[in-house]
UniProtKB/TrEMBL annotation:
This is ABC-three component systems C-terminal domain-containing protein. Pfam families: CTD4. Residues 3-154 form the ABC-three component systems C-terminal domain. It comes from Pseudomonas fluorescens.
Amino acid sequence: MPPPYDIMKRYNVQLLLDVGDHSVLETRELWVAYLEFVVISAIMDETGIANSGYISGIDKKRRLLYTSDSTNWVRRLDEILKISRKLLDKDGTLVVASPQANAKPFPKGFMLESVISNIAIVPGQPFSIDEVESGIYTSYKLTHLEGLRNSCVIEKEEKYRAVAPGRNQLLELRRYLNEIIN
């Protein structure tokens, strides 16, 4: 994996939900979250190498967005969706990382339509975004890193013990991640 400095040079504030606070780019928490994100991505993609080429290859498919704000990440969905539109292709995944300890992965039944309809309204204009654009927003998969950890690792600890160590446990983790991310 490339060193954090190279990642920081390449993405700069694109790693952040709060782009005004550049000092967050130098925090340990961001880089621990980024490492965890890359490991999860490599498991999902069944690749053993997470070099610069791999990271470039997932740029439009899957991204991490970090904030040092510990409030509920779901409250910022409108911002997150707008950033997703700039960073991701259709069907992309955005993983939010923050200090919110009790974060849940995005609820399966949660409807984005109300948030998307608010994003779609252009003040002073009679028309909102078209259905194609709306379809792109609804195609995104959004989740929280801590929520993934809680639901795919901590809450499943007993199930991992019943599986042979090594590759079988990794496949089990991948299956749980796929339930949320894909």
